[in-house]
């Protein structure tokens, strides 16, 4: 969509909302409140500030009429706005306030709705115990009022918690209960989502036939409902299911259907997922030409999404600039008015004017002096920061260049030599006879050792400079690294949020090395069988949470554990002005929290 069309669309949306605001004034109070709430609900993601202004009207009207239902409903939407902005503490505060009002007035349906939102917030922050508590309470409230749709929704949410824990059998039971209540409520949209959840969890359990059956049912129902988003999700998941069971022909068919459909409905996020899956399937088939072509299209769609995002940011900056200019004009008019008042005051007496002028000069002199000092301090601080950044980059570049040099030497030097040795040994077998079976076996073992050495050199070379980090970015590189780990020894769960765009090269390298170092430490020392890695990027910076269920250690005596690479992790993150917090006790596992601030652009 062009920038002109986007601007026109925004203006039309604002105009429609303004018209709604005028029309609702003539409606009865309850209808007016519902209209305002519906409008806020429909725009709160795209236009959160406008939605908040509508919610202010709802609350003012509700306070006059003591309409507690509207107050709680407005609190839910306001909490959702804070949640989607990443302000989870603020969202929880709003939700809890709404819950108190709902409890005081025995609003069971509202209590269930608020508890579901609170449960989702805790699940997002990996506090699954509290999430399960609030989801269960929501279900109990829905049972009190016999709201089948709300009961079904709560079972779905509880199932998602079990799925997050890896307890797929319990998750499946919850989804099946949800399906029963949605069918009882004749709620087809909810039924379609539950069918998809059941199909997905069957896929996680590697029961591919059952997974395919339920996903097909969900797809059929969503086509009937014309739920474009749901259709795209089903096609993508059917692609993954058939890929996992090695039915590449069917997987390619579904991937192409998903791509065609996403093009038709102009859904670029899911389109790039379709191309990425198609590329991976062709790669598994060893059809590298087709894999390359699909990956090129994936990169093209990803770049187009990036460009649209940048265009939106430019428009937002332009609006902010225009607003600031208007505010400056208002400030200028206010200053001129103050000068006029000062002139009128001067007529009250020459002495008073002289004293005022003298006092004014002293204040101005102090402010100028103080401002000069602040500027000097700021310049000095900026210079220090610049030097620190340069030093960090120099160290990182030197380290990575050395890694690349060693990797190239291993691959092109030692690797080639091992390959030549293997070739020569294979050729020698045709020129001499072995004296006995033992000699023949020794020759075979020697050839196997050379072959293993070749593979080991290639693995070390790849770990030194992973090409996927340079080509596809941090998320893909970490997934590639994790995929090489034996899940029987260590199950690694990776989740990412807000990392659709590439990060600064130095940040990507540091985070990859830190995560690589952490995983290796867990494998070597922790004795863990589960590791959770979460990467989140927001306006302030990048948060990394790495948690294992291993042996742990006493975090108050970290100096004893330098051999585990903790000092190396601290050093790398410090280069980027980041922070690292270690939380661990013996036999309680280890949690590493890393924060790297985003660089503010001038």
UniProtKB/TrEMBL annotation:
Key word Zinc present: no
Q: Kindly give the Pfam families that the UniProt entry links to this protein.
A: HATPase_c, HisKA_3, TPR_12, TPR_8
Top-level lineage group:
Bacteria
Q: Could you tell me one molecular function GO term of this UniProt entry?
A: kinase activity
Domain annotation Histidine kinase: ranges: 405-600
The protein's annotated catalytic reaction(s) are: ATP + protein L-histidine = ADP + protein N-phospho-L-histidine
Which EC number(s) does UniProt give? Answer: 2.7.13.3
TPR repeat spans: 152-185
Residues spanning the membrane? 349-369
> What CDD domains does the entry give?
HATPase_UhpB-NarQ-NarX-like
Q: Which UniProt keywords apply?
A: ATP-binding, Kinase, Membrane, Nucleotide-binding, Phosphoprotein, TPR repeat, Transferase, Transmembrane, Transmembrane helix, Two-component regulatory system
Q: What is this protein called?
A: histidine kinase
Question: Which organism is the protein's source?
Answer: Pedobacter boryungensis
């Amino acid at each position: 969509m062009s920038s002109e069309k986007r601007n026109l669309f925004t203006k039309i949306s604002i105009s429609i909302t303004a018209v709604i605001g005028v029309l609702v004034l003539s409606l009865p109070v309850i209808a007016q409140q519902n209209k305002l709430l519906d409008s806020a609900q429909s725009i709160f993601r795209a236009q959160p500030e406008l939605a908040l202004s509508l919610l202010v009207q709802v609350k003012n009207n509700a306070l006059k009429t003591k309409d507690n239902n509207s107050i709680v409903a407005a609190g839910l939407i306001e909490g959702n706005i804070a949640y989607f902005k990443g302000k989870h503490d603020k969202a929880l505060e709003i939700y809890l306030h709404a819950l108190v009002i709902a409890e005081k007035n025995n609003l069971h349906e509202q209590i269930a709705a608020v508890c579901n939102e609170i449960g989702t917030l805790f699940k997002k922050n990996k506090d699954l115990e509290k999430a399960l508590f609030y989801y269960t309470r929501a279900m109990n409230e829905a049972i009190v009022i016999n709201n089948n749709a709300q009961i079904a929704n709560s079972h779905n949410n509880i199932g998602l918690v079990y799925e997050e824990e890896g307890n797929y059998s319990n998750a499946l039971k919850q989804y099946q209960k949800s399906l029963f209540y949605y069918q009882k409520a004749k709620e087809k949209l909810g039924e379609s989502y539950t069918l998809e959840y059941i199909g997905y969890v069957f896929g996680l359990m590697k029961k591919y036939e059952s997974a395919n059956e339920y996903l097909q049912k969900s797809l059929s129902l969503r086509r009937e409902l014309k739920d474009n988003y749901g259709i795209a999700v089903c096609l993508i998941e059917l692609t993954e299911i058939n890929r996992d069971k090695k039915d590449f022909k069917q997987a390619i068919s579904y991937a192409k259907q998903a791509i065609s459909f996403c093009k038709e409905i102009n859904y670029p996020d899911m389109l790039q997922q379709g191309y990425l899956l198609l590329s991976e399937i062709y790669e598994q088939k060893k059809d590298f030409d087709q894999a390359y072509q699909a990956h090129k299209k994936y990169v093209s769609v990803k770049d187009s999404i990036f460009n649209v995002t940048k265009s939106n940011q430019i428009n937002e900056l332009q609006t902010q600039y225009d607003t600031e200019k208007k505010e400056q004009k208002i400030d200028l008019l206010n200053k001129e008015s103050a000068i006029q008042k000062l002139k009128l005051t001067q007529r009250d007496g020459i002495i008073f004017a002289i004293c005022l002028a003298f006092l004014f000069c002293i204040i101005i002199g102090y402010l100028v002096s103080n401002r000069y000092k602040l500027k000097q301090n700021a310049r000095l601080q900026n210079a220090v920061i610049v030097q620190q950044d340069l030093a960090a980059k120099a160290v990182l570049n030197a380290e990575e260049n050395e890694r690349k040099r060693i990797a190239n030497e291993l691959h092109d030097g030692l690797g080639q030599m091992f390959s030549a040795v293997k070739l020569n040994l294979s050729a020698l077998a045709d020129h001499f006879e072995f004296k006995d079976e033992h000699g023949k076996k020794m020759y075979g073992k020697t050839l196997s050792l050379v072959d293993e050495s070749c593979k080991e050199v290639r693995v070390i070379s790849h770990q030194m400079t992973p090409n996927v980090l340079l080509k596809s970015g941090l998320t893909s590189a970490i997934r590639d690294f994790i995929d090489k780990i034996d899940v029987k020894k260590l199950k690694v769960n990776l989740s990412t949020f807000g990392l659709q765009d590439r990060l600064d090269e130095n940040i990507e390298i540091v985070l990859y090395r830190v995560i690589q170092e952490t995983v290796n430490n867990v494998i070597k020392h922790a004795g863990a069988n589960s590791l959770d890695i979460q990467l989140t990027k927001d306006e302030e910076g990048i948060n990394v949470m790495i948690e294992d269920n291993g042996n742990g250690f006493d975090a108050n005596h970290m100096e004893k554990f330098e051999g585990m690479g903790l000092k190396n992790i601290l050093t790398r993150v410090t280069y980027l002005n980041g922070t690292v917090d270690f939380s661990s006790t013996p036999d309680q596992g280890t949690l590493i929290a890393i924060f790297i601030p985003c660089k503010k652009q001038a």
